[in-house]
Amino acid sequence: MRKRLSEATKDAMRAKDKARLSTLRLMNAAIKDRDIAARSEANPDGVADTEILSIMAKMIKQRQDSAKAYDEAGRIELGEGERNEIKVIEEFLPKQLSAEETEAAIKAAITESGAESIRDMGKVMGVLKSKYTGQMDFGKTGAAIKAILV
């Protein structure tokens, strides 16, 4: 993952693509920030790829929220910039699960965790996050879990 990100950064520099380069540098900075925190917790190798995926998913969520706020405020050009950053970040995430695949994954996680009610939703989310980080939108997944567990 780090190597892909590094190569993409170099390619953006060569192509003089300032917007893409800026987003890639933000991604690198977020990863390095988390690496520093991990090293202070006695993890000399930094963060694993699964942690990098969660960093990127968080970055996407932040940009979606920002784009929505900009659109509501009538700042369409700023919202479009946020959506362009989302496209760049998504290039590094694994393929998103379809609705059917998500539903199957939720049902499997419910079975695996032994969940019986909404109180067990945290267990189900834990299983899903350990297996599908970066492959599903956990905001939407929460509603689907509630619908099944009710």
List keywords for this structure.
150 residues, mainly alpha, Hypothetical Protein Yqey, Chain: A, domain1, Arc Repressor Mutant, subunit A, 2 domains, 0% strand
Brief characterization of the structure:
This protein is mainly α and 150 residues long. It has seven helices and no strands.
Description:
This protein is mainly alpha-helical. It has two domains: 2-90, Hypothetical Protein Yqey, Chain: A, domain1 (Orthogonal Bundle); 99-149, Arc Repressor Mutant, subunit A. Helices cover 77% and strands 0% of the residues. It is built from seven helices and no strands. The protein has helices at 2-15, 18-40, 49-72, 76-90, 99-113, 121-132, 138-149. Helix 2 packs across helix 4 and helix 5 crosses helix 7 (138-149). It is globular, with a radius of gyration of 18 Å. The chain starts with a helix and ends with a helix. The mean pLDDT is 87.
Strand content: under 5%
Helix residue percentage: over 70%
State the distance separating the first and last CA atoms: 39 Å
Number of domains: 2
CATH architecture of the largest domain: Orthogonal Bundle
Q: What does the overall shape look like?
A: globular
Text of the CATH class of the largest domain: Mainly Alpha
**Mean pLDDT metric:** 87
Radius of gyration of CA atoms, rounded to a whole number: 18 Å
What is the name of the CATH topology of the largest domain?
A: Hypothetical Protein Yqey, Chain: A, domain1
Tell me which oligomeric state these chains represent.
Answer: single chain
Report low-confidence residues grouped into runs of 5 or more: none
Structural class: mainly alpha
Number of helices: 7
Name of the CATH superfamily of the largest domain: Uncharacterised protein YqeY/AIM41, N-terminal domain
User: Secondary-structure element order, as H and E?
Assistant: HHHHHHH
Beta-strand segment tally: 0
Sheet of most strands: none
